[in-house]
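User: I'm writing a tutorial on reading structure tokens. Could you give me a worked example: one chain, its sequence, then its tokens, then a sentence or two explaining what the tokens reveal?
Assistant: Sure. Here is the example chain.
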Amino acid sequence: MNFLSDTTAPAHPALLDAMAHANGGYAASYGNDPICQRVEDHLKQVFETELKVLFTVSGTASNALALSILCPSHGAVLCHDEAHIHRDERGAPEFFTGGAKLIPLPGAHAKIDLEALKATLNSWPQDFVHTTPPRALSVSNLNESGCAYSADELAALTAPARARGLGIHF
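And here are its predicted structure tokens:
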């Protein structure tokens, strides 16, 4: 097995079959076709909330687009020091956010340490014009070390970020 990237591997035969089957006629573009609508409806059921799906061609594009929605160019994204967005995406998040800063946080096994997150949030002056205020928290699950956060860990990690009005990128 090679987990380098999903964009370096050949397409699975089931995916190719599904694509060939979907190519049976004309369809509206830009996500306005019946297949995209079914995907969006399914995800609304899975996540039990209203949402808008933005289809992209790669994980890097997905992450960069999501962060550009959550964080303005003058803001910061808090993430683990070993996070994929920080180490492996060649500056795409910073580019597509228009210059938002990635602030790496420590933690064992590539998982953000809750106390480090709280300390960072508490030490950041929210209304001082010369700082880069955090506007998003990015959490990798599974992370670069192959570790996953439990539901309780995620709830504890996102609570102080949400209390400060940060968006959550997962």
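What the tokens reveal: The helical segments are 13-22, 34-47, 59-70, 84-87, 92-96, 114-123, 151-163. The CA atoms of residues 60 and 116 lie 26 Å apart.
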